[in-house]
Amino acid sequence: MLLVSPCSISASRIRLSPIKSMAVDRSSSAPQRRNGMSPIEARISLVVALASQTSSQSQKLLTELAGETAKYVFPKTIFGSRTLEEALMSVPDLETVKFKVLKRSDQYEMREVEPYFVAEATMPGKNGFDLNGASQSFNTLAEYLFGKNTKKESMAMTTPVITRRTQSDGERVEMTTPMITKRVEDQGKWRMSFVMPSKYGSDLPLPKDSSVTINEVPRKIVAVVAFSGFVNDEEVKARESRLRTALKGDAEFQVKDGALVEVAQYNPPFTLPFTRRNEISLEVERKHE
């Protein structure tokens, strides 16, 4: 049994009075908060909205990334295979220059290549496969391709990468496929080119970087040999010599006067060597012309 003195009861009543008053105040102010939103509730609502938006954007980015990755994981087949080596090669599912095969032999393939446009930049390196020079030129052209242009427009990548030498006087000659590097021999320089997506035609945005130029490449016929692995200058020189020798025996075509070798590389750096597709080509003309 609890014993309580009158004094303690009185004190208890005094202490309880303000508590009752506060309870009444909260009750009377509750309808106002139901009609509005407290600062804490507003913050929570904002966080939820931002999280939802971020999730939606992340899903979109993941979808786009998956789509781009699939172009490399599930390559397309647009070339005929003359050997087991060629059968193992693969190329990304990206736009490439259009061509028609005129004929095939055991040693090379003849193609008629349709016209296209390229963006070019001079390489600081002294050969076509200088890693530092190629990287700098690639970055310069990539900036143009991905928005550093007058329209601030991002354009799609194409394939292959082509390394090309030109005449010793530095005069521009016709080129063949999506990304090209050509050498200006009197200056000891090369020029790298990206082939532009065909949907633009001649209506391409102009580059903001003055070191990037846009050129049109006319229709041409080339003799092509495919090979796998990584490319170096010695390999190109040996294969070019063999191709020139083989073309001397062609009854219909001959190497065009002044033609120099082009090297096309279709795959990104992480591709296994034996599945990479590389090509060397020389421009040719019909013998009766």
From TrEMBL:
It holds the Pfam family SOUL. It comes from the Eukaryota. Belongs to the HEBP family. This is SOUL heme-binding protein.
